[in-house]
Amino acid sequence: MTVHQSVWKWYGLALLVLLLDQGSKMWVSASFVYGQPWVITDFFNFTLLHNTGAAFSFLSDAGGWQRWFFGVVASVVSVVLVVWLARLKNSNFWESLALALVLGGALGNLYDRVMLGYVVDFIVLHYQQHYWPAFNLADSAIVAGAAILLLGSFKKPADAA
Question: Which member of 21, 61, 139, 159 is catalytic?
């Protein structure tokens, strides 16, 4: 496997996502009372929550095995993303950006899961009494990266004109 030099900027972006995610989680964990919202607007607040499951608290009450299962899945995905990024051409900006965002987010949540046994969530969006599940910066990076990959999949290849 040949690694091109520009891949390091994408690994750097993934590291930045990881650091911002962990920094925000540390701040919220140190500053907030669990479950007590800090209202920002009538549709947005910060509320410290712990998610032992996956997205939308899927399997959160499964008894503990899910911590290690999701940890293994995130580890495998992260290794795949590191290799995928290394093999991309220098000119593939959007795909590299997307993969770096997903990698940083996956590593941020993996760290929580392994070190804490749960993922720290704190961003809450809602309309009246209809709440979107709480999330964090890692989740946001993963969703943004996945959206970029999805949008890119609709683009016609340059050589298929």
Answer: 139
- Give the Cβ contact number of residue 101 at 10 Å: 26
Mean pLDDT of each 10-residue bin along the chain, 161 residues long: 74 97 98 94 94 60 61 86 88 92 96 91 92 92 96 73 47
The reply to whether 121 belongs to the active site is yes
Residue 61 appears among annotated catalytic residues: no
Marked catalytic residue, from 42, 61, 112, 121:
121
What span, in angstroms and rounded, lies between the C-alpha atoms of 88 and 3? 9
Domain layout of the chain by residue ranges: 7-155
For residue 130, the model assigns a pLDDT of 87
Please state, in angstroms and rounded to a whole number, the distance separating the CA atoms of residues 160 and 158: 6
* Long-range contacts from 53-56, C-beta under 8 angstroms, 24+ separation: 55/133, 55/139, 56/133
Token pair for 104: 């940083």
Q: Model-level pTM?
A: 0.84
